[in-house]
Amino acid sequence: MVSRHIYWQLIFRIVLISAAALGSGFLFFDEQYVLSGLVFGLLVLQTVFLIRYVNQTNRKIAYFFDAIKNEDFTLRFPEKLSVKSLEELNHSLNMLNAMIQDVHLKKQAQEQYYQEILKQADIGILTINEKGHILYANPTVEKLLNHHPLNHIKQLRQVDEKLYAIFTDLKPFESKTFQLTNEREKTQLTLKSTSITAEGQTLLLVVVQDIHKELDEKETDSWFKLIRVLTHEIMNTITPITSISESVLKYFKTDGRTLTPEEFAEHHVKSTVKGLEVIKEQGNDLMDFVQSYRSFLNVPEPDKSLVSARDLFEKVKLLLGEARVVEDMDKSPIDIQIIIDPEDLELFIDVKQITQVLLNLGKNAQQALHSQREAVRQSKAPPKGTHGQIKFLAGIGDAGKKVIKVWDNGPGIPPEQQDEIFVPFFTTKNTGTGIGLSLSKQIMRLHGGSIQVASKKNTVFTLTFE
C-alpha cells in the first residue's frame, strides 16, 4: 500500500513537471516571454519539491537502517502528516521497527538461555578461530584446564606444554586423551573436535570431558560383576564339599566323642569313600576353574603376520566340522558359509589366537542352534522353515578398518545378558567355564581391536582390527 502511494505521488509530480516544461517551451516560442518565465519558475519549483520529496523518503529509510544496524529501536517517525503517502510510510517503518525489535529481544533471550545451558553443562566447551583466539569458553572447561580466563590457546602453556601442543595440532573430527596433573589431583581428559562456520569464519569447536569418574564407575561395575560370578562359581563348588564333610564327620563322632574302630560300621566306610570321591571331584573342578583364570591372565602378546582371510575361515570351518562330529551335537547339518569382500583380503594377526576366537564363536553358535532345535522337538512344535546357518564374513568397515563378523540365525542373546557375556566366568550353559568370550575380548584388546555383539533377529559378533 505504501509503495503504491509513493508510486502515484511520483507519477503525479513528474506529470506536473512535464506539463510545466511543455507549457514554458510553448509560451517561449509563442513570444509570450513573461508567461513563459512564470511557468518556467513553476517548473523549477516542482523540480525542487520532487527532489525534496525523494530525499526525505530516502533519508528516513537510511536513518531507519542505520538505527537497526546499531540496534537502536527507539527511532520513531511521526504518523500525522499532511502528505498521506509519507504518513503511511512512517507508520509502516514504525511497525517494521517494532517487529525487528521483538525478534531481537527473542533472539537475546534464546541466546541467554543457551549460554546458561552451556555454563551449567558438565562438559567443557570452547571455540577457537584459525589464529588461536578462544572466542567462547564455558566455566567447566576453565575449571578442567585449570586456567581463567581463557582468551588464547597460548595461555595453556602456563598449564602444561604438552596440553598446548595438543591444542596446536588439533584438527577437526579428532579425538585425543590427556592426563592433566597439578598439585591437587590428576585429571584424565578426552578432547573431541569438530569444525563449524559462524559469521563467515571457520571455527574449531572442542569438547573437553573428565572421563576419570566414568572410568572409575565402569571399573567398579566390572569388579562387582566379576566378584559376583566368582562368588557364584566358588560357592557352587565349596557347598557340596562342606555338606559332605559334615556328613562324613558324623560317622566318626557321636555325642562329642570319636568312635573306636570296633564301633565303626561297614556301610559308614562305603559312604565315607563315596563322600571322599565327591570331594575329590569338586576339588578338581575348583582347580580347573583356577587354571582357567590363570590362562585368562597369561595371554601372550600376539605374534602377528599377514594371513589370508580365506585360508583363516577355511581352517575354522574345518575345525568346526570336526568338533560337531566329536561332540555328536546334532545329526542334521548346519550350513557354514564364508563371505569375503574383497576376495584377496589379508589380516595382520596372530593366526593361532584369532583362530581360537573364531572357533569359540562358531562353537557357541552351533550350541545355540542345537539348543533351539532341541527346544522345538521337546515342544513338539512344527519345525521352522529355515535351517541352521553360520556365516563368517570379512571385509572393510565404514571407518576403513578391517572387520570379521560371525553371524548365526539361532535364538539370540537376551538384552539383559549382552553386557554380561564378556565378564570372565559368566555362562548361561550347563557346561564350560565361561572364559571363552572374555578370553576372546582379551585377545582382541591385545590386537588393538575390539569385539562387539548385536543380537535381535539374528546374532552377530563383530571383530574390528586397527
From TrEMBL:
Residues 110-146 form the PAS domain. GO terms for molecular function: ATP binding. The keyword Nucleotide-binding applies. Residues 229-466 form the Histidine kinase domain. It catalyses: ATP + protein L-histidine = ADP + protein N-phospho-L-histidine. The keyword DNA repair does not apply. Its EC number is 2.7.13.3. The chain crosses the membrane at residues 7-29, 35-54. Keywords: ATP-binding, Kinase, Membrane, Nucleotide-binding, Transferase, Transmembrane, Transmembrane helix, Two-component regulatory system. It is an enzyme of class 2 (transferase). PANTHER family: C4-DICARBOXYLATE TRANSPORT SENSOR PROTEIN DCTB, SENSOR HISTIDINE KINASE. This is histidine kinase.
